[in-house]
Amino acid sequence: MDFNFKKPTHLFALIGLLGSLFLFVVYPLIAVFSFTQIPSLYTPSMTPVQKLTLEISLLFFQFLFVFAGLILVPLLWYKLENRITIKEMFARLNLRKEGLNNAILWGIITVIIAFGITMTIGLVYLFVTKTNPNTLSNIPDLQQLFSIISLYLIVAIQPFCEEFFFRGFLLEKITKVGGTTIAVVTTSVLFGISHLTYTYAYTAIVAVFLGLLFALVVLKTKNLYSAIFAHTVINVTSLTLYFFGKSFGM
Fold this sequence. Notes:
77% of the residues lie in helices and 0% in strands.
């Protein structure tokens, strides 16, 4: 079904999509120029129970916004605008059990390539910008809000939602309008912008290249689980390596 501005359900789906793009793409772009740092919400006077309650609340709203913006909005679009069933939605998103072993295999290959790309970009970025390597990660800022357990939950769960939205929904929609190449590039750039961290472009640059890699592996396997697997492994491994390095004073 084609989009029709005269239909309230279509307008509702469009408003939802624009809201998601603002929250996950436009807002990070605005935030990077505001030079604001994540404030610590915890005070010395707070009891352990109060701190735990606050952290659980923050984690709940984190997942709520991610689920609503990256999962629910695409599902509403498919339901309200395309009028298709859940089974048809999953088919369009390339969320299929068929070829899962092949998808995981390509996911592993993607992880290896991704770490090579990340290391190369990191070395070039540090050489060109002369930036302190310790400032490239946003994990210290996130640690002001979340414990290690919460961080692992975020990096393990959020990749599914991000891949659902960027390499699933947006890739499929933009491909129909502008073709595969434009879809791959556009979704990768949007994915990179969504990872902008304060005044540093490093995270966004890496995310753009990883977005390209994830999109290519999805096109290769015709299975979104390949990118979901790779994205999750990369996130969890990166976080583990960060804490491992910090334990040795690196």
